[in-house]
Amino acid sequence: MLQINIMKRDETTRNEREEEFENKNFFVNVERTLEGECEVEYTINDMKTEFVQWTKSINFQKCNVRPEVQYGIRPREFKKIHDEKLFSTVFKYKVVGNRDEFLIHDVELESQYKLMPLSKKHELITSFVFNKMTLVYAGKIETQISSVRRDRKETLIYNFDWEIAEEMFAMTGDEKYLYRIPEWKNKVEHIEKLLTLITRHVEEKVELETTHMFARLVKLLRLCREQELIKIQRFFETRE
User: Signal sequence: where (predicted)?
Assistant: First the structure.
């Protein structure tokens, strides 16, 4: 959400895919976001206060790379839909300062995805996301975050390899897929706490939160190694 190209860099003129207009209040650029490497459109509007509003919208009709995840059974005659008009993502930044030195005061995100059904009998599903971040403090850096080193280089584009690895481990039980998933150091402790809470809820009264806890429990159990499952079984036996 904090990715903003406030300075119209010279690289845009070197890349044929990137186009820049003469209008000072509008220009386009190709950027890598979580939703892919797409053309983005910037619009600048002066506000009555000291702030300037930068509006950034992603043009899904001009994307070089898009992340994609498909789940469920697909019929043989299923045709892939490339209608990018089904997607919309807009960022609104409130910025103070100039292009050499600026500060983002707050940012709003509005994203809408329309999901096509497999059958014409079903309705179109719309997923709408609204998020907002507001600056709380701007001053001296109190703590320093250590740099993270990884052998594998990654980009900002969303990578669904973790999700596929989770599904493959749940299906096969092969622990080689666990090495592609971030390690949960305290999985067993989380499971024990969830089991205790679920047992208490069931004994007293089943509520909506019980269903959510059970879903989290299933997800954690699917990521457990054999030794971790044995430890959980012993936890149950000692409780009895």
Answer: none
Q: How far is CA 119 from CA 82, 115, 123, 125, 208, in A?
A: 17, 12, 9, 12, 31
**206: three-class secondary structure by DSSP:** coil
Contact 4, 93 (CB under 8 A): yes
Tell me the pLDDT of the chain (240 aa) as tens digits. 666 665 554 444 444 444 444 456 888 889 888 888 899 999 888 877 888 888 999 998 888 888 765 555 555 555 555 555 688 899 999 988 877 778 888 999 999 988 777 667 777 788 899 999 998 887 776 676 666 666 666 667 777 777 788 888 888 888 888 777 777 778 888 888 888 888 888 777 777 788 888 888 888 888 888 888 888 888 877 776
pTM (2 d.p.): 0.57
